[in-house]
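Aim 2 progress update. The chain analyzed this quarter is reproduced below.
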Amino acid sequence: MPRATFSDALVSYQKSKDIKRNIGSVYVDATTTSLRDLDRTLVRLAIVFGVNRTNVECRLRDLELLQDHRNASTHHISQLLMEK
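Predicted structure tokens:
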């Protein structure tokens, strides 16, 4: 999945779904809507490239196109232990 081809496919999908924010990248947080949109994006790109959803998510991360805020409020265990 070359960067340019992958980015083009992502933008094309976003435009087809009338997404106007964060074009060319994927924002996800813990909300139901955001998770649903991420899943739909992963499925679509997986079909386009003939790979599985995990491959697509990894490629989004590799290309720094995934803004993942699902665990933004989660602390590392060391931080939790230091608070006690």
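The mean pLDDT is 89. The radius of gyration is 15 Å. These observations will guide the mutagenesis experiments scheduled for the next reporting period.
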